[in-house]
Amino acid sequence: MNVIISTGRSAISLVVLLLLFCLPLMPETSQAVSESRYYYVGTIGEDLPVQMELVVDSGSITGLYFYEKSGIPISLSGEADLQAQTFNITEQDEKGVKSGEFEGKLSSEGEPFGKMIEGKWTKANGITTLPFKLTKVSDFLYSDVSQGAYIESSFSVPYFLADSEAYRFISNGVQKEAEGKQSEFLKQAREFFDKETSVSGWQQSYNYTIEYYSQDLISMSGEVYSYSGGAHGNTNFISHNYWIREGKAVELELADIFLPNSGYMKVLSDYCINDLRKNGAGWVVNGEIKSFEKKDLGVFALSPESITFAFAPYAVGSYAEGPYFVRIPYSELESVLNANGPLKRLLEKESIKADKE
């Protein structure tokens, strides 16, 4: 199996498989894709920290970015002239209305895409203009392995560029995890098709996204989709959160973020139940699920101002309802959060923001 530094959202999005006639097993192949994916951190103006993910496909750019003060994602689309090393990217609000524009140049220094991007950001009104400068902190490793015409498995995981033991530990860990899941899936698929005939293909996609990046805190969430026959496939969510201390990366559990003996699980459970009920989660609405335990809230992502819990289909409602996500602002958890723990940097920012307001 070959792994290349590249990615493809189309190859890892949820896919409805076409019915395929059973064919003899073919040699395993790895396919390159035209898309590539990168993660940047930097500033707009002198004091507005931002984080940005870009997907580049033959000069076409899509992605998102957020201001660290809010953590709210803003969608991006545009174009890059890879030969001239320039780009123009438009941002849009949640209603699809243009809210700003990035215009600038790439500094690749031997990289396949900009090691650094800089230029000017202009608000939609055309009046407010600020300089911006962002540095790439992660590439993404991509693998697409197929077995004949009816077995396919792909993954996309971040590979951090910082030259340190902690970041190598994180990068190697998620890569090893993805490769292990891929190998396991392919083995099961081969064993099935050795014994059975089917007109349905098998597929798996395994995709990680960086939710937050800093020198001492990394948050990543992932989506795993698999189909092995039947009416539909299954989607599950995964996450990894790391606290970098004294040059070592320590993976966080939920308890590491909160004060011991603070009753934080009841606070989290009550908030999630109320939010899910408000949003129509079937098994919460009908009273089948009344509370959550630690195992139920094991998949979580950290952002500058909130913690988000992911609930896969069948977790809190029927498959037809799809997944649910519950976002809890840190301001709602002040009494139970450990202010001197992994979130110290973020909670200090929240406190400063509140003082200014």
- Major beta sheet, strand line-up: 3-4-5-6-7-8-9-10
Q: Could you give the distance between the termini?
A: 53 Å
Mean pLDDT across all residues, rounded? 86
Percent strand: 35-45%
Structural class: alpha+beta
Q: Which H/E pattern describes the elements?
A: EHEEEEEEEEEEHEEEEHHEEEH
Stretches where pLDDT is under 50 for at least 5 consecutive residues are 1-27
Supply the CATH architecture of the largest domain: 2-Layer Sandwich
Task: Please give the structural blueprint.
Elements: E1 4-5, H1 9-12, E2 28-30, E3 35-44, E4 48-57, E5 60-67, E6 74-81, E7 86-92, E8 98-107, E9 116-123, E10 129-147, E11 151-160, H2 165-195, E12 202-213, E13 217-227, E14 234-245, E15 248-251, H3 264-278, H4 282-285, E16 300-302, E17 306-311, E18 324-329, H5 344-356
Parallel strand pairs: 11-12
Antiparallel strand pairs: 1-10, 2-10, 3-4, 3-10, 4-5, 5-6, 6-7, 7-8, 8-9, 9-10, 10-11, 12-13, 13-14, 14-15, 16-17, 17-18
Report on this model:
The chain is built from five helices and 18 strands. With 357 residues, it is of the alpha+beta class. It folds into three domains: 123 residues, Heat Shock Protein 90; 103 residues, Quinohemoprotein amine dehydrogenase alpha subunit, domain 2 (Lipocalin), CATH 2.40.128.120; 103 residues, Actin, Chain A, domain 4. It has an eight-stranded antiparallel β-barrel. The radius of gyration is 22 Å and the shape is globular. The N and C termini lie far apart (53 Å). The N terminus is likely disordered.
